[in-house]
Amino acid sequence: MQYSPAIISSATSRLQSIFEVDNLTVSNLEALRYKLSRAILHLLNNDFQKLLQILYRIDVDEQAVKEAMIADDTELIAERIAKLILKRELQKAELRQRYSGK
């Protein structure tokens, strides 16, 4: 699905705030997904509780997260979770734009 630059920018800003980082700014979704997966991999290895809090805050589907975590490779798990987070944040950004009257 194609997203406008405004929606991508909105989602990126929220994710930077939620993950407390400032290096997620990118020009395309693929690069954003990669950077997000790196941040998630770090949390998987170092602060799993914080990752769970972030997933709850973003409101990612719990069942989808459980399915994403079925793997032996933490990098694969991080990539799957990044896709879920990005999908949810883009949905929310799209809804905010649609109903903000802009």
Radius of gyration: 13 Å
Question: What share of the residues does DSSP label as strand, in percent?
Answer: under 5%
What's the story with the biggest beta sheet? none
Mean pLDDT over the residues:
92
The amount of helix comes to over 70%
- E-strand count: 0
Give the termini distance in whole angstroms. 21 Å
Shape: globular
SSE arrangement, N to C: HHHHH
Quaternary state of this entry equals: single chain
Please work out how many helical segments DSSP would assign.
5
Structural class: mainly alpha
| Overall number of structural domains | 1
Low-confidence stretches: none
What does this structure look like?
- The structure is a single chain.
- This protein is an all-alpha fold and 102 residues long.
- The chain contains 5 helices and no strands.
- The longest helix is centred in the last third of the chain and has 26 residues.
- The radius of gyration is 13 Å and the shape is globular.
What is the secondary structure topology, with strand pairs?
Blueprint lengths: L4 H15 L9 H18 L1 H11 L3 H7 L5 H26 L3
Helix pairs in contact: 1-2, 1-5, 2-3, 2-5
Please outline what is shown here.
The chain has five helices and no strands. The protein has 102 residues and is mainly alpha-helical.
List keywords for this structure.
5 helices, mainly alpha, 75% helix, 102 residues
